[in-house]
Amino acid sequence: MKFHINLVEAVADNLYQIFNDNKAADKVIERCLRSNPKWGARDRAFIAENTYNILRYARLLWEVADTVPQHRNDWLQLFAVQYILSEQPLPHWDIWKHLDTAALQARHRQLATQRAVRESIPDFLDHLCEQELGATLWNELLPALNSSAPVQLRCNTLKISPEHLLQQLQASQISCMRIGKDHTLQLLRRQNIFKSAAFQAGYFEVQDIASQQVAPLLDVQAGMRVIDACAGAGGKTLHLAALMHNKGQIIALDTEAYKLEELRKRAKRAGAFCIETRTIENRKTIKRLHNSADRLLLDAPCTGLGVLRRNPDTKWKLNSDFIGQVRNIQKEILQEYSKMLRSGGKMVYATCSILPSENEQQIEHFLSQNPDFCLLQQQTLYPHTHQGDGFFMALLQKN
């Protein structure tokens, strides 16, 4: 592998912004690549992959190097440490000539016995997850959360069948295969698919296969009134529109107007014309919709611990106070937003977390306060046992 100093420095700069300036990894990488349009596909892949790899194992790297990075140059050193630990060759640059390969590898062997260091996770989070999940499950799950996630697509059946989508993508030299039982395709290698004719035509959305299980669980039918109360940019909203064959009404709510603007753009591209967006400005927005929905989706805010494969920077930004705040928000959303469901209607509560305190325990608390609801089913998906991210989903019905 040939290294170029400008690319290595770009990785170090990305990491500095993510850790030291507390910026979101995906936005930092996107901005970096957009500001250097002359970089080729290999250069762009090099920057993205190395940034994410170091993010995943940042604690291990700085423990081995015995330094917590404070400056851009520190991140340059950790870039080299990751290659030394994987026994891959590095160029003989002056910036790395002081590194003692044998000493670093010996320290790595010593630290590898400590799970939180080996799997590179904050101590408080390691303890919390073991406490909630049990040691056996956590030991199996944690390495999977540090793996690289595949790119998975949901075929937009409003416009094309999975079979024809697969043919179109392959004809465009986009290597992929069908997975699962429904409408999911997976890329065989990472490519820029957003400039493809199939994407521009609205034939697919990028969506993890676990996330794709949420909308079908809601059991929507054409002609229903459905509310997606935490819609965000609308991945599950668009899936609901496809399942309803564009017949009926979907009201997409969110507290962030800019997310709903992105949803409107995506809906137009997808040909999903049954979607209406409304910004939640205050409690009145919810109150006006009381007892009006046949189906209600609550894709609640959460810690995001189930999607660490895609957002490894999340684990470095969580703290106990934030997790407590998230749990309180989830309780409030369940209690207040559930009032939009009419008698006999069904509701799905979902998170991309793997913590029972955000999932099963929230459902137990809600049911204890709301005897007019009953639990029909619930499920947690884990990346080490399924093909997708970590997700929880519960289906409830209002009597």
Structure description:
- The chain is of the alpha/beta class.
- It is about 45% helix and about 15% strand.
- The protein contains 18 helices and eleven strands.
- The protein has helices spanning about 5-20, 25-35, 40-55, 60-65, 70-85, 100-110, 115-120, 125-135, 135-145, 160-170, 195-200, 215, 235-245, 255-270, 285, 315, 320-335, 360-370, and strands at about 150-155, 175-180, 185, 205, 225-230, 250-255, 275-280, 295-300, 340-350, 375-380, 390-399.
- The strands form two sheets. It has a seven-stranded mixed sheet, sandwiched between helices.
- Helix 13 (about 235-245) links the parallel strand 5 (about 225-230) and strand 6.
- The radius of gyration is 23 Å and the shape is globular.
- The model has no long low-confidence stretch (mean pLDDT about 95).
Question: What's the structural blueprint in terms of helices and strands?
Answer:
Layout: H1 5-19, H2 25-34, H3 41-56, H4 58-65, H5 72-85, H6 101-111, H7 115-118, H8 123-133, H9 135-145, E1 152-155, H10 162-171, E2 176-179, E3 184-187, H11 197-200, E4 204-206, H12 214-217, E5 225-228, H13 235-243, E6 249-254, H14 257-270, E7 275-279, H15 283-287, E8 293-299, H16 314-317, H17 320-337, E9 341-351, H18 360-369, E10 373-381, E11 391-398
Parallel strand pairs: 5-6, 5-8, 6-7, 8-9
Antiparallel strand pairs: 1-3, 1-4, 2-3, 9-11, 10-11
Helix pairs in contact: 1-2, 1-3, 1-5, 4-5, 4-6, 8-9, 17-18
